[in-house]
Design goal:
Elements (H helix, E strand, L loop, with lengths): L21 H7 L3 H4 L10 E2 L9 H8 L8 H6 L23 H16 L12 E3 L2 E3 L1 H14 L4 H8 L4 H20 L19 H30 L4 E2 L1 H8 L20 H12 L9 H4 L6 E2 H34 L11 H10 L7 H5 L1 H5 L3 E2 L16 H8 L18 H17 L3 H18 L9 H40 L33 H4 L5 H9 L2
Antiparallel strand pairs: 1-6, 2-3, 4-5
Length: 565
């Protein structure tokens, strides 16, 4: 999204790009490297065309219903977005044109500003300008500094310095080193940490209904902006603003009556547009994941806008010019180096000059590797033999390893492991183990489970760690106390995260001006922060301070060590 820092988004403006949505970008934008691939590279395999899924109307009815009855904790947790393989509540992928929500528009503009400035502008902070050594740090610089550390990590000094803008890498490293030394000093003095684990900000968790409501508010904005863009494109290009298969066919077939705007598309003489649209329909937008499959999103076939194809045309010309210039420079350097020894060297560009130029630009020599990994990357269902489509057809899609082996240059690149032939599948064994474990844990109460977890962690420290600690009664009791303390702090942090998620979801429902479909279970405030000086790392190292114990070796030292016998 091309937007200046601090610039707000207005769906009524016609000169601002549309809000990004998977459906819109999936139809309009196609990667240039994908479009230039040849069809024969994928012809040995057959791709399955997925049918549109008919969603149950009961989902919409449940969404529109207003149930104010009390819900238990289990019912509320079932509304949360699943973290594992639990079944999610489906939502139709087609965007619905709803009512424009000014509150959501303000939220979008704030997020745009935060992304532009690489910092959360509205959060309160307690930073003050101060001098660290010989360097003066302002309040704004400190704010961006800590934001960059939270987003990039403390090891990415170059990017942190670039985000601040006014501080060098050395100055950033000095600040981080000062913080690390202060933390180590507090640890040696047996002082409490400045902040506890519960005070670290965590990502909030929203229910699926709230996420669906946010998506509907986003659809209302994106559809309005897309309509504005379509109007602008149609004004600029006329009838060929959207290159559908029918329009491309008429242009390729050389219609007798040509519009004046047709001559503006010089890219049609360079690109094979029917091939582009076919690749989009059969491969790039034909994922087995419904949200990435064009049939689940829109009734129309994949198409591409005229402005987009012109952008690809400009990009192709730019890359070609750079490649030619780099090739000429590479060949001239080679010729000049050889003329001193071989005066008969001719001024000819060789194949290896082009290969060196391609590698220097970071480009691939061919698209074989791209197509070999395309099935796994795009989540395609690939069949060796086309499925018949009847009920008796038991053909299964190929494994991604098999697809990559079929498309690889050498068949020895990938070894496909055979399926177990012992009559019991690996998944059945895992299911049996899970069933046995779940049956054995049913009778355990919550206190018994906590006691079991503490004992397991204590045994791991004493038996399976490299700390080499003596198994004395005093040591075991001290370790046990620290383990119980840390587990209580983790449980307290989870309650704090649940309370913050509850508050954030309530604020979003109020912003959307929509009543939740079910009464949200109120998560009580866990109370005052629980602090303690007991920590497990005070008794044996956990490896968190590995940086101070790691010896740095430069590249030339590593090369010399590798060459030594």
């Amino acid at each position: 999204m091309n937007m200046e820092a601090g610039e707000s988004f207005n769906p009524d403006q016609t000169d601002i790009p549309a809000v990004g949505t998977p459906e819109h970008h999936g139809q309009q934008h196609i990667a240039s490297q994908e479009s230039e691939a040849e069809q024969e590279d994928v012809s040995p395999l057959t791709l399955r065309f997925l049918k549109r899924q008919q969603y149950d109307s009961e989902v919409d009815e449940d969404w529109n219903s207003e149930d104010d009855s009390e819900q238990s904790a289990e019912e509320f947790n079932s509304l949360k977005r699943p973290a594992g393989d639990e079944e999610e509540i489906p939502r139709p992928f087609k965007r619905q044109k709803g009512t424009l929500n000014p509150g959501y528009l303000d939220l979008l503009n704030r997020d745009i500003e935060d992304a532009a400035y690489s910092a959360t502008l509205e959060d309160d902070d307690n930073f003050h300008s101060s001098q660290l050594g010989l360097v003066w740090w302002t309040r704004a610089e400190k704010r961006v500094f800590y934001e960059a550390i939270a987003r990039l990590g403390r090891d990415n000094l170059d990017q942190i310095s670039a985000r601040i803008g006014s501080k060098s890498v050395v100055e950033v490293h000095q600040y981080i080193d000062l913080l690390e030394k202060e933390q180590e000093s507090r640890r040696r003095s047996n002082l409490r940490s400045v902040i506890e684990i519960s005070e670290y900000p965590a990502a909030v968790e929203l229910s699926q209904q709230c996420c669906h409501a946010l998506d509907e508010a986003a659809d209302a904005i994106s559809l309005r902006q897309e309509a504005r863009e379509q109007q602008r494109e149609e004004t600029k290009w006329g009838e060929i603003w959207n290159l559908t298969p029918e329009i491309v066919k008429s242009l390729e077939g050389g219609a007798k009556e040509q519009n004046p705007a047709d001559t503006q598309l010089a890219s049609l003489q360079l690109f094979d547009m029917p091939q582009w649209l076919q690749l989009s329909r059969r491969i790039f937008m034909n994922s087995s994941i419904p949200s990435n499959n064009w049939e689940y999103i829109d009734d129309n076939l994949p198409s591409i806008w005229a402005t987009t194809i012109e952008d690809f045309y400009s990009l192709a010309l730019s890359i070609t010019r750079r490649l030619v210039q780099t090739t000429i420079f590479t060949s001239m350097a080679r010729i000049r180096a050889r003329l001193e020894m071989r005066p008969e060297t001719r001024n000819v560009i060789l194949r290896r000059d082009v290969e060196v130029a391609v590698e220097s630009l970071g480009l691939a020599l061919n698209s074989k590797e791209f197509w070999r990994k395309s099935a796994r990357r795009l989540r395609l269902e690939v069949y060796k033999d086309p499925p018949q489509g009847n009920e008796d057809d038991e053909s299964c899609p190929m494994l991604y390893e098999q697809v990559e082996q079929e498309l690889s240059v050498s068949s020895t690149d990938i070894q496909v492991l055979p399926e177990p032939d012992n009559g019991r599948k690996g998944s059945d064994v895992l299911d049996a183990l899970d069933t046995d474990e779940s049956d054995s844990e049913v009778a355990l109460s919550s206190s018994d489970e906590e006691e079991r977890a503490v004992k397991q962690e204590l045994n791991e420290v004493l038996r399976f760690s490299a700390a080499d600690l003596p198994e004395t009664l005093t040591l075991r009791q001290s370790l046990r106390t620290r383990i119980e303390t840390e587990r209580k702090q983790e449980q307290y942090a989870e309650r704090c995260d649940g309370h913050e998620s509850y508050k954030a979801e309530v604020e979003l429902w109020d912003l959307l001006q929509v009543k939740p479909p079910m009464s949200t279970l109120k998560m009580p405030d866990p109370g005052q922060t629980q602090k303690s000086t007991l920590e497990l790392e005070s008794m044996y190292p956990l490896g968190r301070d590995w940086r101070s114990r790691t010896k740095y070796c430069s590249e030339w030292e590593q090369e010399s060590i590798a060459k030594d016998p």
